[in-house]
Amino acid sequence: MIELVDLSKRYKQTEAVKKVNLFIERGEIVGLLGPNGAGKSTLISMLASLLEPTSGDVRFQKKSVLRNPQPLRKVIGMVPQDIALYEDLTAEENLHFFGRIYRLKGKELKKKTEEVLEQIGLTEHRKDIVKRFSGGMKRRLNIGVAMLHEPELIIMDEPTVGIDPQSRNYILETVKRLNEEKKMTVLYTSHYMEEVEFLCDRIYILDKGNLIASGTKDEIKDIISLERALSIKADRWENEFVTKLKGNPLISRIHVEEKEITVIVPREVNMFSAIIQIAEETGQELNSVNRKDPTLEDVFLHLTGRALRD
């Protein structure tokens, strides 16, 4: 359905996207994963024909979007990272306004508005002024605007940023339902590993403008098949304990959080006894040391040496 070929974008001395190649098949949910500043928003702006690339091509149904963007624009829905609504209008008025931009009118516009309000769970708030909405409700309405014309492809650029867990779960369930019931193709960008694991059929991982991994969830996790992740938990960390872990030559990657340390080690290495010994030497009290099933977070740590949200 969509193909990016050697797509690049340069701003003066900064190369925000570097020769990225990816494809999206009709009917799938594809995740574009990466930390803030990875180039995700720049890449999808080029994909949506909102930004001209420095080099490379965007193809929709095997034809270049750069030469003729209209066929893609007719079938695309865009959920931007920043809320794009008129806050002095009601939810219903926003949908009517954007619906007319999509050339919907009369009974068709009224019908689509009703359907979308129900899908995003805002029917009871249709007459409420948007500026009084919570962040989660605004995000849901933002998605509703993009769905009005029943796009074949919907692009969601970090649609759950800055909202409460309940609204976040509602949005994720809505995306899943749209894909299953409407067969809508979705490109979903995020820096939350758990969202992408829940939603996506295939995943691309972007870091510093480079595409560093792609495949199904299992294929990407197989990248670290020769290694394993261990989770060390404690209420607090002794500086000497952390320093000795970081200096251990058997540990290839380490990520320290407030109450959990994740270490990546070769699969054949038994680090349990070494971790316990370091804890005893440094007076570190541990709550647990467990083997972890590999996650996308572990893959990112393996590939870049840092956590996704660093």
UniProtKB/TrEMBL annotation:
Q: Which SMART domains match?
A: AAA
What GO molecular function terms would the record report?
Answer: ATP binding; ATP hydrolysis activity
Q: InterPro entries of this UniProt entry?
A: AAA+_ATPase, ABC_transporter-like_ATP-bd, ABC_transporter-like_CS, P-loop_NTPase
Source organism superkingdom: Bacteria
Which stretches make up the ABC transporter domain? 2-233
- Pfam families from the entry? ABC_tran
Enumerate the UniProt keywords alphabetically.
ATP-binding, Nucleotide-binding
Name-wise, this protein is ABC transporter ATP-binding protein
